DNA sequence: TCTAAATTTAGACAAACGTCAAAATCTAGA
DNA sequence: TCTAGATTTTGACGTTTGTCTAAATTTAGA
């Protein structure tokens, strides 16, 4: 990403980021990501091409920024306020937040899934993005815990398990309640808790 | 992929497929996948652009074909000759075959990893490709087994666990022997066996 | 409010993409 | 070996990409 998200944003920079991400989210809800081009995003957001390239490397980069915004809505970082949780509780907590995000954003996400192949680059990049965020979260969270297994390996395994269920429920369309999902998670992670 | 891999290939078609996949494998061992363009592949393989587009949609498509060839070298399908295996044995068996593939193709794969970011699209697509193959394998394999969990969900979980260790060992460069890996797998899957 | 610095915009550019129709060449079966 | 059908190649085409420069505009501090 060309634009530095860590520095404080001017009002116009924020406007530009908002406009492009909103345009992208609108378009991927309407058509296949592969078919979207930069001019289309510029037309919809009413910004010139050069401005797009001031902020983003390419459309994949903008897509990543969209995922970043969307995942932020899950407030996964609140897990750091629950240091007393067991591994299983932390896992259920993270799962619930992602599950709620999917329910809350159901209209948008269903439209995206309807327009984009489950094995295409859009869905892959979304899953990869959530997986990455969850892994980072658990790297921090398990930091102080003791285990005879490598901490990061366990964190990755736990993240994979959460993502597996998210895929199963929302991408492969299986009707699973939160409680049932918790049951699955416990069976999958049982030995580690 | 434009070319139908299921139909029998003419000699020239096989030559073309070989040349392009070899050119791609050579190039990704030398430079970053993002920087490779179609003309470069055509120069190296001595085929015209239009021939490339006769066979492949784009460079990602050719890359997928390369992964298909590489993964075939692991002979994962031989698992179907071992119907008596437990879930854990089957998992170790599949892991071993992928592990051996990485050892056997170490020079090529290390060069690829050295030239391509672990979070970039090349590595992601490779991992996704192996994951997909492993999942398909276990969908077949567990087909007749009984479990109070959905068969495909278990197959996906098992595949994820194998891939987790492959990533851990070969992409994140942790020195883990086969025996140690089997130990990890048992701890991660313990409850399901 | 004014001004200097930073950012955005317009427009043009070369390079790469992906498609096409017609010509050349290959292939498999008689 | 010959030939009809299928495939590959050629070369050209319009589109999209990503970069660049100079002009216009916006920003933030005095």
TrEMBL record, chains A, B:
It comes from the Bacteria. Gene3D superfamilies: Tetracycline Repressor, domain 2. Keywords: DNA-binding. Residues 37-56 bind DNA. Residues 14-74 form the HTH tetR-type domain. InterPro entries: Homeodomain-like_sf, HTH-type_Tx_Regulator, HTH_TetR. The keyword DNA-binding applies. Coiled coil: none annotated. PANTHER family: ACREF/ENVCD OPERON REPRESSOR-RELATED, HTH TETR-TYPE DOMAIN-CONTAINING PROTEIN. This is TetR/AcrR family transcriptional regulator. It comes from Agrilactobacillus yilanensis.
């Amino acid at each position: 990403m060309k634009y530095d998200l860590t520095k404080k944003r001017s009002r116009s920079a924020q406007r530009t980021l908002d406009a492009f991400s909103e345009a992208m989210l609108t378009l991927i809800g309407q058509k296949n990501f592969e078919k979207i081009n930069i001019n289309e995003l510029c037309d919809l957001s009413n910004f010139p091409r050069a401005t797009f390239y001031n902020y983003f490397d390419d459309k994949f980069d903008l897509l990543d920024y969209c995922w970043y915004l969307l995942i932020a809505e899950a407030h996964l970082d609140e897990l750091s306020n629950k240091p007393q949780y067991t591994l299983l509780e932390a896992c259920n907590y993270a799962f619930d937040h992602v599950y709620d995000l999917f329910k809350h954003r159901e209209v948008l996400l269903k439209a995206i899934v309807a327009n984009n192949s489950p094995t295409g680059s859009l869905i892959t990049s979304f899953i990869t993005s959530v997986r990455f965020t969850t892994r980072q979260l658990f790297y921090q969270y398990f930091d102080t815990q003791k285990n005879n297994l490598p901490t990061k390996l366990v964190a990755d395994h736990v993240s994979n398990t959460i993502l597996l269920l998210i895929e199963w429920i929302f991408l492969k369309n299986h009707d699973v309640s939160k409680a049932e999902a918790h049951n699955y998670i416990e069976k999958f992670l049982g030995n580690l808790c």
